[in-house]
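thread: overnight batch results

M.L. [08:02]
morning all. the overnight job finished for the chain we discussed friday. pasting input first so we're all looking at the same thing
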Amino acid sequence: MAAPNEFEVRHAEAAEIFFDALKACDIASSFDRRIRFEGDVLHRLAADGTSSSTIDMNNFKQIFVVALGKAAGPMLDALLDRMKRRTGLGGIYCSNQPPKGEYSEIQFFEGGHPVPNEASFAAARAALTLLKTAQKDTLIFFLISGGGSAMFELPLDSQITLEETITFYQVLLGSGAPINEMNTLRKHFSAVKGGRLALAAREATKVNLLLPDVPLQSLDALSSGPTFPNRSTLVEVRELMDRYALVPKLPESVRRFFDRRDPVAGLSQNEGFLSCSLSNEGEELTRPPEPSPSLSDSDEVLRDSWFEILLSSHDLLENARAIAEKAGYYVVVDNTCDDWDYAEAARYLLDRFHALRGRYPRFCLISVGEVTVTLKERPGFGGRNQQFVLQCALELDRHQGQRLIVLSAGSDGIDGNTQAAGAIADVTTVARAHALGYDAEASLAAFDASPLFAALGDLVVTKSTEQNLRDLRLLIGEF
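M.L. [08:03]
and the structure it wrote out:
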């Protein structure tokens, strides 16, 4: 057997950094750093492990759990493993696979992703029905992770069908809009987003445990903010519709809904904001209350809620940094291109890599976040990570002799409409693809990168990760 060449070694090393960084983001361990149950008392933990606030669970006759998103399963398992089982427990779990534990009190729905399905609608209806029974003696745990926007959905206009909702989602996904802008539109569309899920249980005490796949400054975009006030306005909605030319592509019923001149009922920007602290690795991110003419019902509902970040892309990044440094690389982090178009992000990170590489014999540039892709009407197979990597491969092909490799992969293990998390490329990728009959530029233009990388053996495949902490990009070289 021939010895692996330099690029094969570097491919394996980059993949190992990604896999090990993801493995280190353990959801169960994150619970133990954030909350602790001591008998019937729930403690919220400060950065030093001491209790910063408590909830006595004896004060509640009912405890509900609403878990949604791609990581909802391990979040639910971790919570119920730590919480003493009791009467009055009930809940809704909506994800793309069942939890490992068996919980007769929790109803499971296999929601759709990246577009809703019948179970998405059924889960939202069931959750609203359950939460409307909540009283002052009800405690609710909201376990929210990325992917919940599609998995857990119900139109505010009951006349809009599932098929029309799916078309609306498909239009958004192909628009090239960043996730926070897509979620702005979803919040105004939905009966369970933009705070409306929390409004269904006005009097209950609420504990929100979050696993965000969005920037920490945009936590209200996580699963389109079912328990956060909606900070956007109808003016912003209409501006986004115009900017991305969405109206002609929407079903008639959805178009009529967004054409309404009267404000959509629910939480809106002029109804006030939530004031709370959001902690992550000891950082305090505080959103001050916005001035409003009067204190709204929605503000009263959410003011006393707990919001706790369990894990984020910050953890994924720091794990990757530590692993790369242990391997002898000098590491630089650059997240500047978050939410950029994939081609612009590729050129920016390659330029940044070359500007710095001369200083360090073993160099690794790390970037987390997501890039955007504007899809054609009938795209091929791939996702934003594979599209980004193929763009990098074409850039590298124009500058032969560059000894670096590029990896981009999603922490949820699913990139676009494929079963791969992402891909890896180097200066030989385009030539190797050509030798197998693939035209890299044509694959890029058709948004059909996955068959090319599959033929080369350069897909990053993780299967299900039960995680969702955004994407990790690695540029690695030794000179």
